[in-house]
Structure formats: structure tokens, C-alpha cells
Amino acid sequence: MTKLTVKRVYDPPAPGDGRRILVDRLWPRGVSKDRIDLWLKDLAPSDALRHEFHGHPDHWDEFCIAYATELGSPPAQAALATLAAERKQGPVVLLYAAKDENRNNAVALRLWLDGRPNSVQE
After folding, report:
1. Cα dist from 44 to 15, 64, 75, 89, whole Å
2. Confidence grade of residue 116 (pLDDT, cut at 50, 70, 90)
3. How wide is the angle at C-alpha 79 spanned by C-alphas 75 and 85, nearest 5°?
4. pTM of the predicted model as reported, rounded to 2 decimal places
5. Rounded (5°) CA angle 72-75-79
6. What are φ and ψ of residue 112, in 5° steps?
7. CA-CA distance, 5 to 17, in Å (whole number)?
8. In terms of Cα–Cα distance, which of 78, 55, 71 is closest to 110?
């Protein structure tokens, strides 16, 4: 299993990062394309879910459940297959732009992936 980490997109790239993959629906302000290797916006929560969570960060558990449901959609499944292929090549960093380092979609995605045996971790 290759290394999968989560990092804020505004943090500087590190030598051991591997592939830097943005998992937000919107491109982060002020970030040049050379800091991101791949943009998998279909792994991001829907606009409706993103807005709902933004207004209620204390609803983290509900957000994670709703997001997990969205990850079952065909576009998200295709993006997960791309992520799996990237992980077979080496380390991957899931990038996000949110200010909250503990409660954001990349962390939720990582938690979801960690709980799914025989999924993208292979």
C-alpha cells in the first residue's frame, strides 16, 4: 500500500509528497497549476453539501455520511478509479483549500478510504 496523506494546498510541496491531487470542486485562489499534479473535482462534495457543511461545521458526522453517499455516484467512482491508479504508482497527497485542517472534505475522503478494505488503498 502506498502512502496517502492530506495537506492544505497552500502548504509548500515537500520532497516526499508524491502526486499532489486536488480534491476540491473549486480551484483555490492564488494557486498556480504547477503546484498541483491532478485535479479530481468529482471527488469533491456537491455544491449543496459543501454549502450546508460550511454553514454548520459542528455537523461533521452528518457531513461525512452524506459525503460517503455522494462518493457512490458514477462520476465519483470514476475519479476513485483514477485515484487508485495514481496510488499504485507511488505516494499521493490529497489537497484541500479549507482553513480547518481537521474537518474538511479531504480528511473525510481519507477516513472513508481507510474504512473501505480492498478499495483505493491497494
Report:
1. 26, 12, 10, 22
2. low
3. 150
4. 0.89
5. 90
6. -65, -45
7. 8
8. 71
